[in-house]
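Progress against Task 2.4 (sequence-to-structure conversion) is shown through the following example record, which the project officer requested during the mid-term review.
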Amino acid sequence: MKILIIEDEVNVASFIMRGFQEEGHSASIAMDGATGLQMMTDHAFDLVILDLMLPGINGMEVCRRIREDNTDVPIIMLTALGTTENVVSGLNAGADDYMIKPFKFSELLARIEAIKRRTQKNNPKNFILKFSNLEINTSNKTVKRGDEKITLTATEFKLLEYLMINQGRVLSRVSILENVWDINFDMNTNVVDVYINYLRKKIDKGFEEKLIHTVVGMGYVMRKDD
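Structure tokens generated for the chain above:
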């Protein structure tokens, strides 16, 4: 893999680069956001490791700009900012995963492999998922309910896709975290509840029939109203 590390801490960047090189990957380093964006424009990378607290253009903005031009490259945010608000903001900006410093390199490698498995599973087909009058295309990432087109962030789309694939089945918060983000958060986090609320505002608001339901004490389910 060709990996871009956007990290301004020299020791951290060098540690990550050496680890990837020992695994047989090619790694490049950008010490600030502007340089990272320019390198993304000039070269093709298979993965981006992105810090948030960068000089000049911060990591959130870097992630958003990368996503404007490249919807497929996996982005893992690696940062000391670990509040629920930070995590939600990072994932909402388009990151595929979010790791908090300090970290173990073996866990970073495991996260990368998990992203690769999910990408390989979800990308091969042009696949339409339908439930009631809701329809999503997992190939071109479009969503519509009835005649209304709905715009979702990358993370919202992954969550909706997982709910649709498992329609009628109650999904726990742990299951959603593992399958949508491939991350094991502190189970006290409310990131799943936050994203469910985001989806409800876009998918159910304004429609008589509600499709996303809470099962108290158990999780969430995609089903028609009783």
